[in-house]
Amino acid sequence: MRYEGRIFRPPSEGRSYILQATIGCKHNACAFCDMYKEKHFRVRHLEDIFEDIEQAKRAGYRPRRVFIADGDALSIEAHALKKILGRIQDTFKSCERIGIYATAQDIIEKGQDQMKMLAQSGLGIVYIGLESGSDAILKKMRKGVSAEQMVQAAQIAKSAGVKVSVTAISGLGGRAQWHEHAVATGEVLSEMDPDYIGLLTLMLESGTEVYKWVQAGDFEILKPEEILAETKLLVEHLKVTDCVFRSNHASNYVNLSAQLPSEKNHVLSQLDQAIQAQSFKPEGHRML
């Protein structure tokens, strides 16, 4: 298998076969992210993608899950993506689910009909980075999309039969906008009503705009106890139908896992206990 540059995938795809169908991220402008800065976005040739699938088969891979990378992989033209999905399923009879990173723009551009076609072709889950429910913070972070578009994208994917996993970034509003970030993110996540929610915690990566803002004194990073207070406020504003909630990424100060809404009070209690006990992951143990 051939991989160009660093490979990123959601925590839940840790044991998946990673198939690199695109290189980099088409947007690649978020102020907090350095994931694909060394790459120039392009879609790989179908022949190369199919060859990688065949190489994985010859190497003895029998994956239960396949994850299609890099960022913006859903930007691949729908009929080409349908062929990739078909080749994966034809090659790996063991495959139970195929996932992919997707931007809200990707999903909206494809629309419900094409998303339904992809679902019928084997696409099982899309991973969308909401990051924040605040339009002001999304604009500041150069996400290139509004909260309303995020909600629209989630609704399109769900109505097409594709599961939706959404990530948000704790601390993304800094000290100045932590309350706005928590409340708005909880409310927008509720409107998206995803199948999965994953919380990460902001980490400073040299070379990013946020790093430069912190160095210049224009952005204040939250302390661990402030991050947890923000998380508690976010969870208090969550009103989802049936959702797996995770805050167990390597960047998080406290690991949380729950089924919402039934275990919401348990999550709030865990946060209270961690804040009172000042029990946080050491800074040096956090990573992306």
Could you provide a short overview of the structure?
The chain contains nine helices and ten strands.
Topology:
Layout: E1 17-20, E2 22-23, E3 42-43, H1 46-58, E4 65-69, H2 78-91, E5 97-101, H3 104-120, E6 123-131, H4 135-140, H5 147-159, E7 163-170, H6 178-192, E8 196-201, H7 209-215, H8 224-236, E9 243-247, E10 256-260, H9 264-277
Parallel strand pairs: 1-4, 4-5, 5-6, 6-7, 7-8, 8-9
Antiparallel strand pairs: 2-3, 9-10
Helix pairs in contact: 1-2, 2-3, 3-5, 5-6, 6-8, 8-9
Explain what the structure shows.
The chain has 288 residues and is α/β, with parallel strands linked by helices. 39% of the residues lie in helices and 18% in strands. It contains 9 helices and 10 strands. The strands form 2 sheets. The protein has an 8-stranded mixed beta sheet with strand order 1-4-5-6-7-8-9-10. It has a two-stranded antiparallel sheet with strand order 2-3. Strand 9 and strand 10 form a beta hairpin.
Instruction: Report the principal-axis shape.
Output: globular
What's the number of extended β-strand segments? Answer: 10
Q: Describe the biggest sheet? A: 8 strands, mixed
Radius of gyration: 19 Å
Strand content: 15-25%
H/E element sequence: EEEHEHEHEHHEHEHHEEH
Query: Which spans have pLDDT < 50 for at least 5 consecutive residues?
Result: none
The number of helical segments is: 9
Average predicted confidence as pLDDT: 95
From the helix content, strand content and strand pairing, which structural class follows? alpha/beta
**Major beta sheet, strand line-up:** 1-4-5-6-7-8-9-10
CA(first)-CA(last) distance: 24 Å
Helical fraction equals 25-40%
